[in-house]
């Protein structure tokens, strides 16, 4: 079993930008698919991800996912500001990913951290998520990680109860993009991070986010009442853009400082 990879002095290059195949239909399916590979230098492996660019936001890769992937790939050398969050030594880490979309971040986390990862999304997204998990079964077997796929609609108490709270780390990328989803997402984070009764340990939520709208400040204003929110990384802007991905860490405020 591969544990949390706490120490590895050899510095790898950062994850390569993804390489793409042309967008083309499968022989027996008219929906255009797009297969992308992601090189994980630190473990000398490649992840393959299927996307359906015409099928909506859940079926394509968003920018913050690439940033999280790069930070995860740097983790074995402790050259990332997230090392303390990713460094779960002593046993196999349990990680929950919210709004996984194509699943690339969760699959990479499982392989890079040797973790048990549950990737989640809305029910209609799960078949493609499962396809991508299955497509990478080989690298998970080699590196000791495991990935489960589960439905988690934010704010749905039945889903949240089924998912449970037994995680060491919660991750997510590009989840704050629609103001109708701020409340359900915060509700889910509250369930996962607040009042766990584990005084010795705080569960951390690591979120990659590309700012697009001024109104997103409403999400962070509400989040700040429940969590200590810290910026841990600012990625360089993409070509032609002024803004890069920011990575935040959320931890529950102490009970006496909660402002709910
Ligand atoms: C912008 S995409 C980001 C996908 C992926 N994390 C990435 O970075 O490539 C947002 C994701 O959140 C999911 N999502 C939207 N509303 C949701 C909800 N109410 N409950 C759970 N997931 C939701 C979408 O299906 C989608 O996969």
TrEMBL record:
<feature type="region of interest" description="Disordered">
    <location>
        <begin position="1"/>
        <end position="33"/>
    </location>
</feature>
<dbReference type="InterPro" id="IPR029063">
    <property type="entry name" value="SAM-dependent_MTases_sf"/>
</dbReference>
<dbReference type="InterPro" id="IPR019410">
    <property type="entry name" value="Methyltransf_16"/>
</dbReference>
<protein>
    <submittedName>
        <fullName>Uncharacterized protein</fullName>
    </submittedName>
</protein>
<dbReference type="Pfam" id="PF10294">
    <property type="entry name" value="Methyltransf_16"/>
</dbReference>
């Amino acid at each position: 079993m591969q544990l949390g990879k706490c120490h590895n002095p050899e510095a790898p290059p950062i994850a390569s930008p993804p390489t793409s195949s042309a967008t083309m239909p499968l022989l027996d399916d008219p929906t255009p698919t797009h297969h992308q590979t992601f090189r994980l230098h630190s473990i000398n492996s490649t992840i393959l991800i299927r996307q359906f660019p015409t099928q909506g936001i859940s079926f394509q890769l968003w920018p913050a996912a690439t940033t999280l992937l790069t930070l995860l790939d740097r983790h074995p050398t402790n050259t990332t500001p997230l090392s303390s969050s990713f460094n779960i030594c002593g046993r196999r880490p349990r990680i929950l990913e919210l709004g996984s979309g194509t699943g690339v971040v969760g699959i990479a986390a499982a392989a890079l951290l040797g973790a048990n990862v549950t990737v989640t999304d809305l029910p209609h997204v799960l078949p493609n998520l499962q396809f991508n998990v299955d497509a990478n079964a080989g690298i998970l077997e080699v590196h000791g990680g495991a990935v489960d796929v589960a439905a988690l609609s934010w704010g749905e108490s039945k889903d949240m109860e089924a998912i449970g709270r037994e995680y060491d780390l919660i991750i997510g990328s590009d989840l704050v993009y629609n103001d109708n989803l701020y409340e359900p997402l915060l509700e889910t984070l509250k369930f996962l991070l607040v009042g766990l009764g584990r005084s010795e340990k705080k569960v951390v939520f690591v979120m990659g986010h590309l700012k697009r709208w001024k109104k997103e400040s409403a999400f962070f204003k509400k989040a700040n009442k429940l969590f200590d929110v810290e910026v841990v990384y600012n990625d360089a802007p993409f070509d032609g853009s002024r803004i890069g991905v920011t990575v935040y860490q959320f931890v529950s405020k102490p009970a006496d400082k909660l402002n709910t």
